[in-house]
Sequence to fold (324 residues):
Amino acid sequence: MRKILITGALGQIGSELVPALIARYGAENVVASDLRMRRMEPAAEAWPDTEMFEHLDCTDAVAIHNLVQRYDIGAIYHMAALLSAIAEEKPQAAWNLNMGGLYGVLEAARQHRCQVFMPSSIGAFGPATPMVDTPQVTIQRPTTIYGVTKVAGELLCDYYHSRFGVDTRGLRLPGLVSHKAPPGGGTTDYAVDMFHQAIRYQHFSCFLEADTRLDMMYMPDAIKAMIGLMEADPKRLLHRNAFNVTAMNFTPDELAAEIRTHIPDFVIEYDNVDPVCQAIADSWPRSIDDSAARGEWDWSPDYGIKDMTADMLDKVGAKLHQTG
Ligand code: SER
Fold:
């Protein structure tokens, strides 16, 4: 088979996607890449030794092209991007990486006939979007630079499919909860922080308000969704870029209550709410409708808030115990 390239492989998603792809397709078929150096990343320790790792700056289209050519890449999971909160701090850098990176990937894919996975997000919606049960096809007028790059990215992927026949596929991912690599700069990352702080200090100061309801997903489901969509029968896909997918939705207060069923002394406070993050979260849907994904490629999540919380506490607890 032609090889699979992952960009942003040391990030929150990439560090779990790489081993999942290796387990499914074999280490000899998976090329991981990142702007960062693998040896310096704590999460890299947990990786299998055998896979190929390349330094790749996704704003360098020539470097992407060379890598795709050198390894005979047939599919690209393009994970390198700045998330919503950090993108709002440096919008120009966010545009350069999120759009420039995707453009470079799509151009390489066009020339070398690669399949492309592009992660879109609930951030592709905005205040004018219907906030509850947000439909698959609806108004998308995001107010963040992150959202602007996601909508533009969805459209660019559609264009490369219809104009050049590139097999582009994508998901609008909700907030992702995971324990392997730390998330970086997302609005929904409060949920991951909450687990760490609950175990360490039984106390968490939340940067979102208590009743901020957002869609969420546990990482094993996100990995399952990405690989499931990439393997789906193209004849069934009416919406290739990008499918709404969700597994659960909750507020910080509801997640805290679930954690409290395991750690009764856990206290959450809302005295340090971040106005920028709050405004971002308020512009996103409360719940999205993922019936197109369920109907077109049989999407169905395995984890709800209870299973996810129990597993997160287990895994984060074990890790903190090891590191002291
Ligand atoms: N989790 C992302 C963020 O908060 C949304 O896609 O930026």
Remarks:
- The mean pLDDT is 94.
- The CA atoms of residues 148 and 222 lie 22 Å apart.
- The pocket of serine is lined by residues 83-84, 121-123, 146, 173, 175-176, 186-188 (CB under 6 Å).
- Residues 3-174+218-244 form a domain with the Rossmann fold fold (CATH 3.40.50.720).
